[in-house]
Amino acid sequence: MNIIKNKFFFIGFSALLVIASLVIIMVRGLNFSIEFTEGSLAGVRYEQVVAPQDIQARLAPFDFRAQVQPFGETGMIIRMRELSEAERGVLLAALEIEGNPYELERFTTVGPSVGRELRSKAVLSLILVSLAIILFVAFVFRHVSRPVSSWKYGLVAVVALLHDIIIPLGIFALLGKDISTLVVVGMLSILGLSVNDTIVVFDRIRENLGALKENERFAVFDETVNKALRQSFARSFNTSFTLVIVLVALLVVGPFATRDLALILLVGTLVGTYSSLFLASPLLTLWKGKESE
């Protein structure tokens, strides 16, 4: 297996996926859940199965701007503009179906200021995590300066992480899934899982370079990186495969409330494993070429 020999194919494939994801995000947009916007959310559960279209039809006469989504077997999630106490009573009355009683499981209202604050904190957390990764990797690899500077290991890791975030977001935009606080937690988890795999490979590169003389490192850098990938491949694949099994089970038979989290983690794990093995290290060899000029 010579990944570095085919690096342009793997890098090009990643670039194609990222561009496609960005196009999907720009065209379809991201659906932010109630936590990041303003409005009200109601969760109800009926005793018998009811069609979402029936609930939507019952709410149509009112200016609630309601969106109805099934939840489990007999539950419904209803997202609306912010409702007053009087409008909340109208909503609860409209949801009543003769012979099919329901239970109001939750009702949440989020104002615009809270939504903006949560969006800002979510973006800030992603930025701070990326900066922390650059600094940490640069510190750990501070004794490896040839043929690639130590801080560039951190920068390459962050480029791979952007790849790991953009593609799952593109899939969520394509599927029309909501971006909730749980999904943001999933994205932060992806950052940790992916950078762990990437650093394992980078650490192998560092060890292999340490066994070489300073003047030999540039000439055999590509071979050294490919050797590190061969040494790390089985470990990365086996770790990710066991995690994928758990996430698939959670996605298929797990509770509805955690399915979006399972989906973002599943896609992120697959994409992150790919980027750790087929994107990050090949990018290092490209940078080596530029430093030699």
CATH structural class of the largest domain? Mainly Alpha
The count of β-strands is 6
Q: What global shape is seen?
A: elongated
The secondary-structure element order is HEEHEEHEHHEHHHH
Distance between the termini: 28 Å
Overall pLDDT confidence: 82
Low-confidence stretches: none
Q: Kindly identify the CATH topology of the largest domain.
A: Multidrug efflux transporter AcrB transmembrane fold
Residue fraction in strands:
5-15%
| Structural class designation | alpha+beta
The assigned CATH architecture of the largest domain is Up-down Bundle
Q: What would you say this structure looks like, in words?
A:
The protein has 293 residues and is of the alpha+beta class. The chain has two domains: 4-33 and 114-291, Multidrug efflux transporter AcrB transmembrane domain (Multidrug efflux transporter AcrB transmembrane fold, Up-down Bundle), CATH 1.20.1640; 52-110, no CATH class. The chain has nine helices and six strands. It has a four-stranded antiparallel sheet with strand order 3-4-2-5. Strands 1-6 form a two-stranded parallel ribbon. Helix 7 (221-253) runs antiparallel to helix 8 (259-278). The radius of gyration is 24 Å and the shape is elongated. The two termini are 28 Å apart.
